[in-house]
Amino acid sequence: MNRYQLAIQVDDKQVVLERILQVTRYRGFLIDGITAKVNTGTHIGYIELLVRSDRPIELLVDQINKLIDIKEVKLTNRAS
Amino acid sequence: MAKEKQHTGSSLLFDILEQHGVQHVFGYPGGAIMPIYDALYDSDVQHFLCRHEQGAAFSAVGYARASGKVGVCFATSGPGATNLITGLADALADSIPIVAITGQVPTAAMGSDAFQEIDIFGLSLACTKHSFQVTDINELPKVLHEAFAIALEGRQGPVLVDIPKDIQLAEITNSLENFSKLKNKVKLPPANVGSAIALLSQAKQPVLYVGGGVGMANAVPELRDFAQLTCLPSVSTLKGLGAVDPNDENYLGMLGMHGTKAANLAVQECDLLIAVGARFDDRVTGKLDEFAPNAKIIHFDIDTAEINKRRLANVAILGDLKINLPALAIPLEIENWQQKCQQMKIDCAWDYNHPGETIFAPAVLKEISDQMPENTCVTTDVGQHQMWAAQHMSFDDPSDWLTSGGMGTMGFGLPAAIGAQISRPNDCVITVTGDGSFMMNVQELSTIKRFQVPVKIVLIDNGKLGMVRQWQELFFAGRLSETDLSDNPDFVMLATAFNIKAREITKKSEVSEAIKEMIDHEGPYLLQVKINAEDNVWPLVPPNTGNDKMMEST
Prior knowledge:
The complex is a heterodimer.
Chain A (H helix, E strand, L loop, with lengths): L1 E10 L4 H11 L3 E10 L4 E10 L3 H10 L3 E8 L3
Antiparallel strand pairs in A: 1-3, 1-4, 2-3
Chain B lengths: L4 E4 H11 L4 E4 L6 H7 L5 E4 L3 H15 L3 E5 L3 H15 L4 E7 L15 H5 L5 E4 L6 H13 L6 E6 H5 L1 E4 L18 H10 L3 E5 L2 H4 L3 H11 L3 E3 L14 E4 L6 H9 L2 E5 L5 H4 L10 E6 L13 E4 L2 H7 L7 H13 L13 H11 L5 E4 L3 H9 L8 E2 L10 H11 L5 E6 H4 L6 H7 L4 E6 L4 H10 L15 H7 L3 E5 L5 H10 L4 E6 L24
Parallel strand pairs in B: 2-3, 2-4, 4-5, 5-7, 6-7, 9-10, 9-12, 10-11, 12-13, 13-14, 15-16, 15-17, 17-18, 18-20, 19-20
Antiparallel strand pairs in B: 1-8
Helix pairs in contact in B: 1-2, 1-6, 3-4, 3-17, 10-13, 11-14, 15-16, 15-22
């Protein structure tokens, strides 16, 4: 399985973290690690996700990007 | 600046619904949504009481699909809300814009396992495009405007708004300004038209593969112009039916598991497949590795996530089909290929000769298609009758053909037809159903009775769960497990109990006249068509098999 690191910027809305976790699981990616924080001044949240899967990471990036409260998804590390 | 007005959350809801052009809603009241139903009393919005929340959700879906407007449904908290879920899932799978409003227990009681409390917000994550739970009355107007904007923006879909009872009762002064600008829209890369034109002009055997996205994008005229100018042989998905002119000589019909042999063979042999608003669904591709094995792919879509999801695209063209399709419309020199495809179409034309006196369902559906008035809207349920309808009926527009494609939801047809009829009161609406599917939302006959919705119901009755029985016969050694429905109720008597005129036919000689009687009847009508329980849907691509290996009979 390939391992990837994603940096996700979100609007700080209800359940945004839950949405990302649901999409990640449903699309066939296992989560190895997660850190999340919110800047209360800007109402922007930052989530770092370590995932692994045999599937291409672009499939997950595109699906997370489709979520309404997502500002940006970046693939920061493509380790295997 | 719009005029400010004093509201409760509930009265504000109706003002905003009206602001978005909503005239009709489908729903079912209950404890946690009572303030909204109280405000309905003073509203100009017309409410259709369905007899199950799933019926309300499907009527909203049918309304949206037949009219192009957003469908709206209401349900109370707990079981009311969970009953909507199948309809939301159906709308998500087929990209249908609906807004579902659910009542919720008061905010102070939330999270306490209160009476009729369920976390519908959590449950909605996997079955909606987006969802909201309003816990501050001041957020309500923004949320409602956003719900409509999200339902319609880009790839359309269902949105759920969960409103606790105290928010429904809370007071707010609102200017009714629409501030629905979505800030996180996915930015689409510019279309690589040059590469696509190069592929298209080099192709010797190209095929146009048309999906439901064409209708959703209101791009039927652009698609037809494109097909006419390029003279491309074309095939359609189940949901795409009606987009291509059914009389186009280069149109080969539906592809996939129950597609025409001509459509499937043309796709298998093509060297370029131009997918337009289609997503390489497993019912279309058969065994994915063997699908269109020699083809390069040009993929038109509005949804970035569909590109390369199941089949790598050589060129992706993202964005509005109304703009992107004309950019690729160039005349092609593919006469030999066109002729080959046209010959395949002739060679595999449907044969309606059927021995004996028993009724042949494909011939019935062909006859209905020939007799039905212009602008008739047809809905179906799911199973054999659905595939026969897709194969043997013709539609002038995708909004005239409402079938549960992605989710394949039995019970869709009747409530969807009610929604379609309410959105298009002057058009004929026919639902083609089976004896299995019909019973799944049969309570909606009561909705038909109450509002005298003149829906025509064609019940193809083989006393079986026909499609599952067909698979058991073909792929499970004839072990017919739980597919016998020979103890169905008397459907004519059942319809009559709801004051719906009904008739049963059993012989071929009755078909033509019975269809005429049904269509000419002003009110609702049920035509029960008894067919042979052993009739199968052909052709059929067996599971995990390439589309060139179709079974045509046993």
